[in-house]
Fold this protein.
Amino acid sequence: MVTSVDARTGLVVGEVAGETTEAELDALCQRAAEAAVELEGLGRHKRAEMLGHMATALEERRDEIVRAADGETALGEERLNSELTRTCFQLRFMGEVVTDGAYLEVTVDHAGDTPMGPRPDLRRMLRPLGPVAVFGASNFPLAFSVPGGDTASALAAGCAVVVKAHPAHPATSLLCSQALSEGARRAGVRTPAVSLVFGDGAGARLVQHPNIKAVGFTGSLNGGRYLSDLAHQRPDPVPFYGELGALNALVVAPAAAEERAAEIAKGLAASFTLGVGQFCTKPGLLLAPAGQAGDVLRDALAEQVGSAAAGRMLSERIAKSYSDCAAKLLAHPGVRAVAQGVAGDGGGWWGAPLLVEASAAQMDGPLTEECFGPVLVVARYTSPSELSSILGKLRPALTMSLHAELPHDKPVADVAVRAAEQLSGRVVWGGYPTGVAVSWAMHHGGPYPATTSPLHSSVGAAAIRRWLRPVCYQNFPAAMLPPELLDEPAPEHAVPRRVDGKLVLP
Amino acid sequence: MVTSVDARTGLVVGEVAGETTEAELDALCQRAAEAAVELEGLGRHKRAEMLGHMATALEERRDEIVRAADGETALGEERLNSELTRTCFQLRFMGEVVTDGAYLEVTVDHAGDTPMGPRPDLRRMLRPLGPVAVFGASNFPLAFSVPGGDTASALAAGCAVVVKAHPAHPATSLLCSQALSEGARRAGVRTPAVSLVFGDGAGARLVQHPNIKAVGFTGSLNGGRYLSDLAHQRPDPVPFYGELGALNALVVAPAAAEERAAEIAKGLAASFTLGVGQFCTKPGLLLAPAGQAGDVLRDALAEQVGSAAAGRMLSERIAKSYSDCAAKLLAHPGVRAVAQGVAGDGGGWWGAPLLVEASAAQMDGPLTEECFGPVLVVARYTSPSELSSILGKLRPALTMSLHAELPHDKPVADVAVRAAEQLSGRVVWGGYPTGVAVSWAMHHGGPYPATTSPLHSSVGAAAIRRWLRPVCYQNFPAAMLPPELLDEPAPEHAVPRRVDGKLVLP
């Protein structure tokens, strides 16, 4: 039985559902295949409408959903209200992306001559992959969970979605799936555009189910790698888009430390303790200059951290894992505790902010791994070349950030930006990496272990690309072509296209 | 020692190189990392120039290269001359793609307000992955080998390439790599843009080398799956773009069979025996209507095949594998031989054209697998629904083809096109799938086992996407941005972009 646990008391408050059986999973995947046909057949404009109805249905149940999510996660109603707003924005934004239609990558080459002889008429566009699986994340019970970015982008593409509910917020998952179904119904969709499975066994079988054509996952390195291996070991391997977490470095250059130590300390402390450090974009490593300016920065951080309060973490497992990895950090050679936040008091599982300093000469083992929770490691560099060598020891991450004052800090900035371009998917100048805007230009991804698929984003307009694959039509009669590929498409099917090598806007 | 074998005699005619040792591979990959930095730094326009110089250098050595390739493959000078022309066209075409610059997917969102609060300035573009590995294919010693499409698209993206030479044409590989190096030198490139390794052990280590950030492969299902597993099992898995072969179906609808049996038989026989059937796009399965029109088509094919001559295959291994899979087909329940071509005579390894008929009720086992060589299986359907059920048993392929006369054949066409959209990457109307044009709209790929990565193409403009990943710059000062991301880029850096959600052409 899947139970709902109150994150403020640690007590079971309800039974949500049984674990999905093998037979139930089969039936769900069968219906998902039918839904995929219906969703593709709806066309772009009706799918955009459906996404809008889904957002509205979620908003209509805002209070109920936020209350359930707050009970199961202890994230607080303010944060969860804003997360629901973001979730609805994301659904509607994906509607804009499909309405725009450039995502189809429509490309038309009329028949012609080439140095190798005549070329046939070729017309290419992207088409949905079919039913896909999405794994809800613990730390975003809405925006990266049942109604989250993976679901929104997959539905937008025309794929049906089977979501594996995260065990830390099953009641929230169920409520959200009901709202999505209500939205789909209002759009006239008769098959289950989104369905829900419960239980880790069902999740593993879902990844292996022949009907499932791709998987979206946000979660831990171990869990993600396990599922990614299952997807790869299928008789017909399918794309696995896993976001597995990251140690996100933030570099402060000498002049920036000199000029803005207090401001940076405040901003950075707020960023790494936000949501009790339970963000995949949490800055986990500060690379600060050696010497006085760096000392001032570290001491200012220590002051912030010393007065920061512990917060309730999402689950017992996550709190335990946080205290384990914090202990591993402190046991690492050259590491010392600098400051610790105020301990928590009351039910639930608490995580207190922690600041440690590490020796740049010993940046290995746990110092190169993500520790999920409100901990920040500080290491110090004496020169751009030492900074470069420290960065060279890090594994890729979702983000890297840099605080620098030009032109004085140019040498450090050059080293940091070059490393960031190699090692991360988003480089933040003069800011903090938490907070991932949903927009056309956002990229949320990075080389392994940040994600399993470095070419793709799980946030922003490009997220839709994960659920699509190209099909090329050769010498087709107009009567059999998709409407976007016609020479003179009807206004509702006119999208940006490349025709005979030239980009043409509608 | 890696030896060159004459495909017309089966005799060793020369020693080309030693197998690449582990230390040599390490050194090569180290230099490739330096080359990747130089190639990215060259910028788009100089990389396009380099691709042009490479094409010219290949053309200058055309006679020598064609002679070597003909000796090692027995494909004939006419075919190899045209393959070299295609190879050079492909290099120059990739130059056009990078000059155009839309492939960078430049996206700019200026800072602004959103329902979730202020959004920072975000600018995204694609950047090269770093050094990559390419495996040469046996059946295209030029166009899918050392100077082939994978190499051309990776160089265009700004990646250095380490090619694993195919053992069936090592001398050709060496000559081509010298020509590519000469082209790079003429473009002023000082590091090895393309380097070569020999030996299967070196190939396996190459896939696992930490410097290698992606792999392109064209070859057999078994070899490709083995290497794909190695890439996935790395501590840091990297993208593996494998094209593993396909059973490409061709459907003939009743009215088309009625009206054009002789013409289709001629075209189809030419297509499946072209290059001794050694094409990944070879049509391997004909689905013809039951009844008289289908009988006429089959009999016309039998006539074509009976008078077709055997040809020399690329290697002893390939000829053996062809005769093994042909034997397996003939041993399958319900299969009978319809016609066999004229046997070969003389040195080398011969493959004779073969036409077999199978029972639609027993479409499983070897009937659903590619048999690499000049064999075509004919199966018959009695109705659109039986056709649909046969197609439902097939695994995905690179292509599917359809001959139909509208409006009479509409029911069959609907079934076939729908299946083709699900099961293949290119749907050919009224033609034959061999011959893959290099153009903007081409797609060469498909769900597994056609390729390991169904989202990507190994031919055409989109092939470049495999070697790139997005990086997003947040709140960057203009002085630190790549030139294509500036608000007012210089004319040479002006590319198609999406700015604040709107597509803008330069």
